[in-house]
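Protein modeling request. Please complete all fields; requests missing the sequence field cannot be processed.
Requester role: graduate student
Desired output: 3D structure, token encoding
Chains: 1
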Amino acid sequence: MTSVLPIVARQLTFAYNEPEDRLTLLAGDTLGQSIHVLMTRRLTERLINGLAQLLEQSSPLAQTAPADLRNDIILMEHQDALFGRTEPGPAVTDAIEPANAAPPTHLILAIDVAVMPQTFEIGLRAGAAFLIRLSLDRHSVHRLVEALSQRAEAAGWNLVLGAPWLEPGQTQIVLN
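Delivered output (176 residues):
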């Protein structure tokens, strides 16, 4: 089956390709089409930090809270997204190697993100051509950030994360 690009992803599977030192992403849509792409360490770090910053900036509750409580508010939102109720949205999975996937065919060179009132519209590009499009609610963005962070950590990339609430093992919340 020939895929019509861009894929409007409903399923994302991440893996680490050690020989290439790249994160791989297999994106599939509701029609059974898929595309398998590579992401660099630098782009992954920028995506994680960029999405974290957008989550912080777009949270009405965090923006109205005192500065010393904002990280705790976003951390609680993050934990709710990961461990609380599940909401509809693209399924994000983590795998050692995506099963039955063709080898990655494209390197993602740019990622566009637009914050809308109810969603984050994300487009992954190889040059000018969009390969994957995502429309995610806040909880799904938190799950995406977590999947990227965990896979990068498992790869030993030692990414510099700008958001304290994203540090591995972050569970401390200050309640006054």
